[in-house]
Design brief:
Layout: H1 3-9, H2 16-21, H3 24-48, H4 50-57, H5 63-76, H6 80-95, H7 97-115, H8 121-124, H9 127-155, H10 163-167, H11 169-191, H12 194-199, H13 204-207, H14 209-221, H15 227-234, H16 242-249, H17 251-283, H18 287-315, H19 317-340, H20 350-370, H21 373-380, H22 386-402, H23 405-416, H24 421-438
Family: Belongs to the major facilitator superfamily. Metabolite:H+ Symporter (MHS) family (TC 2.A.1.6) family.
Pfam families: MFS_1
Protein name: MFS transporter
Length: 451
């Protein structure tokens, strides 16, 4: 431990009790939740409208190629995620969480709003997918600062014995944004004809981004900075070059965080984003029924996530993450086998009820990871480089394996059969996460944030 760290710990700033009693914790929790909700509603509508966007921006190819091109744009937008993680982490650790989070939601909302006005392939040819890619990359850059920043901000407000419960509000906001996007898209499919969807209907959810973004910025700008970062400023211990310090002193934690994030990254985009498309294309489930199933999955996830966050406060993050990874390794292939054998004959059929049951189980299983991972990553890194360490490792895992998961599943499906491609991806990711978490010393019961 350095002399700087010893001096800092002697004056840690406002106590957790003072923060909670003043109402700052409740305000920080609400702001973290609503901000993450806004950003991920914006981000998710692209994934849920992938089949429509494929026809608007890539109509000159066959259906599978167009869908792969759409997911390729989705995946390429993740190239900027590690870069964004470094930049947002630098600003978050050097200038504060509050200002950084306000800026990230502003950029995300602006880029999403622009998508609503992009011309299609029939109007401008190949310029259309190029413009789509550029706006998606701006979205990816903005998103790379959101999850890590919001989780770090809230974890630094929460008391030690309830950090897991409060920090899981961030993935809960993320899932609620996905749920709202899924419901919105399901309504579009239900009330509009295919011609209306292709003509103007797909633009509607993107138009909502700007007003939602202004709400998020307003709420976040009214917050106070987290107690931990305030103490760094008061003691003049804010790092000059946080990313450099991170790479020099915390490389093992980066590898642990990267590996520990893999099942979350792959599972998030396969279970919560890609699944409606998979159900429609592979099982013949109607679009409206497919998005309803996504809604059920998200509801199961949301119902379970707070329980998992609270449970992690009692038994530790590491145990839950190991159990989750182990269950994914054992259960994913059998569950996909059940899905692939379903005889779907309509929303009122027993086959559809079986689909909903399996997806609900996936939602609960994924909540074990989603409700725990953010707190685990916050506890891996000290305050001086927490934002940077979280953002770099989390966004790198999502860029390499998360954003590419739908594309990989679609591509691999052409060789081994699309029914089991997502299952194999999830199983391999779970195995890597299990090993990474197993050898970590973080996530024990009663863990405290390192200053």
């Amino acid at each position: 431990m350095t002399a700087e760290t010893t001096e800092f710990r002697a004056n840690p700033g406002p106590s957790r009790a003072e923060v909670a009693e003043s109402g700052l914790l409740r305000r920080a929790a609400f702001a973290s939740f609503i901000g993450t909700f806004v950003e991920w509603f914006d981000y998710a509508v692209y994934g849920f409208l992938a089949a429509v966007i494929a026809k608007v921006f890539f109509p000159a190819t066959d259906a599978r190629s167009a869908l792969m091109a759409t997911y390729a744009v989705f995946a390429l937008s993740f190239i900027v995620r590690p870069i964004g993680g470094v930049i947002w982490g630098h600003f978050g650790d050097k200038f504060g969480r509050k200002a950084t989070l306000s800026l990230s939601i502003f950029i995300m909302s602006g880029a999403t709003f622009v998508i609503a006005f992009l011309p299609g392939y029939q109007s401008v040819g190949m310029l259309a997918p190029v413009l789509l890619l550029l706006t998606r990359m701006v979205q990816g850059f903005a998103a790379s600062g959101e999850f890590a920043g919001a989780a770090s901000f809230l974890a630094e407000y929460a008391p030690d014995n309830r950090r897991g419960f409060f920090t899981c509000l961030v993935p809960a906001g993320e899932a609620t944004g996905l749920l709202a996007a899924s419901l919105f898209v399901a309504v579009l499919y239900g009330v509009l004809t295919e011609e209306q969807l292709l003509s103007w209907g797909w633009r509607l959810p993107f138009l909502m981004a700007l007003p939602l973004g202004f709400v998020g910025v307003y709420i976040r700008r009214r917050l106070e900075e987290s107690p931990h970062f305030q103490s760094l400023e008061e003691e003049r211990h804010v790092p000059v070059a946080p990313v450099k310090e991170l790479l020099q002193n915390h490389l093992p934690q980066i590898f642990t965080a990267f590996g520990g994030t893999l099942v979350n990254a792959v599972g998030f985009y396969l279970i919560l984003i890609y699944m409606p498309t998979w159900l429609s294309d592979e099982l013949g489930v109607g679009k409206e029924a497919a998005f309803l199933s996504a809604t059920v999955t998200l509801l199961a996830y949301l119902c379970a996530i707070f329980l998992m966050g609270r449970l992690s406060d009692r038994i530790g993050r590491k145990r839950i993450l190991l159990l989750c990874s182990g269950l994914f390794m054992v259960a994913t292939l059998p569950l996909f086998s059940v899905l692939s054998s379903v005889d779907y004959t309509g929303m009122a059929s027993g086959g559809y009820l079986l689909i909903l049951a399996v997806l609900s189980l996936f939602g609960i299983l994924f909540a074990m990871n989603g409700g725990t991972l953010a707190t685990f990553l916050c506890e891996l890194f000290p305050t001086r480089v927490r934002f940077s360490g979280f953002a770099l490792s989390y966004n790198s895992a999502n860029a390499l394996f998360g954003g590419t998961a739908p594309l990989a599943a679609t591509w691999i499906g052409g060789f081994i059969g699309a029914a089991y491609a997502p299952a194999w991806l999830l199983t391999i990711a779970a195995a890597i996460t299990f090993v990474s978490i197993m050898f970590s010393r973080a996530g024990a019961p009663g863990a405290k944030l390192e200053d």
